[in-house]
Write a structure and sequence with these properties.
single chain; disordered N terminus; mainly alpha; elongated; 0% strand
Length: 190
Amino acid sequence: MSENPQHADTPSTTPDTPTGPTTPDTRTTTPTITGPRPEPLRLFGTTWLHHDNGYALRRVGASLGSLAAAAAGCFLLRFAYQGLQIADVGGFVGMLVIVMFAVCSAIAFRKTWEGFSARPADPAREQSLRSLKTIGFVGSLLAYFFRSLTEAPGEKLHRTEYEAAVKQYERRRGTRTGNPAARKKKPKRT
């Protein structure tokens, strides 16, 4: 083993090992991807594009997982409410906590549901609602559950954006008729 750390990771110089920077092998038959690439979704990657590689199982897992997490969250909120009852803080505080979690969950559900079909118009406002959505995490989990019954959460938004990008790419690609430098030069009028 060499004591110099710079040379510790260098490959040996045998005829089969390249010594220069690694480049893709041009002899392989793997086609190169041209054009826009689909944006990966959380838990789904890019399987939403062609509904392949376990897409249906991932949807079932996402729906069951979000429903189980929402149920566990409700169970924990019940323990918190029982703690308030044991502490004997009064009926007003208990009702205030219930209303706060219900309102925050409703807002979180709505904002999460809207986020599946459109990008936020004002990202700063979405950032300010982050703590409210954290408090109403049960609403966000329920939105994931209901959306994953029909599609991957966010699939519709990503699909429309991807299809628009592909159309724009094809339109730009279609206007090119070849190498402009290789075109025949027209004679100048005198």
